[in-house]
Amino acid sequence: MAKTGSIKHPKFPTIQQCESMGREDQTVVADMDGTILVGRSSFPYFALVAFEVGGISRLIFLVLASPLAGLLYYFISESAGIRVLVFATFVGMKVSDIESVARAVLPKFYSSDLHPETWRVFSSCGKRCVLTANPRIMVEAFLKEYLSVDMVIGTEICTYKGRATGFVNEPGILVGVNKAKALQKAFGSKFVPHIGLGDRKTDFPFMYLCKESYIVRPEPGVKPMSQDKLPKPIVFHDGRLVEKPGPLMALMIILWIPVGFLLACLRIAAGALLPMPLVYYAFWVLGVRVKVKGNSPPPARKSTGQTGVLFICSHRTLLDPIFLSTALGRPIPAVTYSLSRLSEIISPIKTVRLSRDRVTDANMIKKFLEKGDLVICPEGTTCREPFLLRFSALFAELTNELVPVAMSNKMSMFHGTTARGWKGMDPFYFFMNPSPSYEVNFLNKWPYELTCKAGKSSHDVANYIQRTIAATLSYECTNFTRKDKYMALAGNDGTVTTKSELASKKMTTSC
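-> structure tokens emitted (511 positions)
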């Protein structure tokens, strides 16, 4: 490699001029912000970490520090500006929490901002390296898991007893000459990368060391790669924020949360206290939109011997059964796999917690169906993306009176689900959106010839209904389960254990 002393800034060709064919045996080294990603600013990703780990108070601290970071970045030193962002975001945070956000939250936002021309070249090379000023702990999980990057060289944060100090380790922030030195240290002095990709002057030192180098110029018209062309689809992701929080968006979130929380309390109170036939209109007045499609079945009547139907819903949030009841104008009890105590208390409908024992649960569901209608979400957990998780087949064994319901929703600011956080806040975050909406689409009652009564297996029935709901929503069916989701995002099976269950486990253990 060449020396990294005084380096002249050559005029590099643009990324559009780089040939991507025949690169399978070559090595590419690329910067991240503005190169692999269309966006040139890393602030939104620092803001995501700040909010998801430290909450609103840490986001406020970061927003207050951002003017100083911008002043230093643009007028004094790029390195100094990034140091301010690192300190404001990470100081005092548990390293494990940062890693959790990097694994479960950031990939969704990074993947929605991939530069199409850079990816064309980057993906064509057999060995891929990313050299970035961003803290390695933030970007490594996404780059290795979703872009198959072999080596990630980034700024190393300083830690003490499992917590970040807010400072960075030597050689400091990887910008300018530090990037070139880090590249030399990683590859050795004898190996020269074939392609170097960057987007700004501080990338030139490392680009100068590569056999070929190309500049990714900022172009306002460039659109990120579409979701269907992503190298690996994002099925599971976590985090409360819907949009990537730039400085203005972060400020709006800070200002909105106090107002939004009060509005959420009002909306929840209306749903819990008003008679169910009035909830639809109360929601409409309070800015919550409920759209109903299809024809719903009439309520069960004991006088005529008509038993209840089992509504089979796709699972978007824990509020699915409540909006189903809102659409019907009558409360429908819901079978739940795992629900926080707070959610049970404020729920306007009866919730029935599954015991996770197949025989016990089957008997309980049959008893409820004898009394009237019941709703169940056989996915077992929510999914935010246009996918349906594998349906549990238990429901198909219990009744032939099945009504599939395709549920979908829209949120503009906050997600109403979480895998890593406290589930008791899920309904509050959903109703904190300025104008959330739900669409409840009642499909035709499931034909008897496709039920277990007609000789179909319960798994076949579950799969048929899953495909029918998926086709209605234009979603894709998967074989992922609740356990798959929670293991990917939180490292557990997603079970919320009640105090009584904890006490029972302790007694069993002591015996």
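The chain is about 40% helix and 15% strand.
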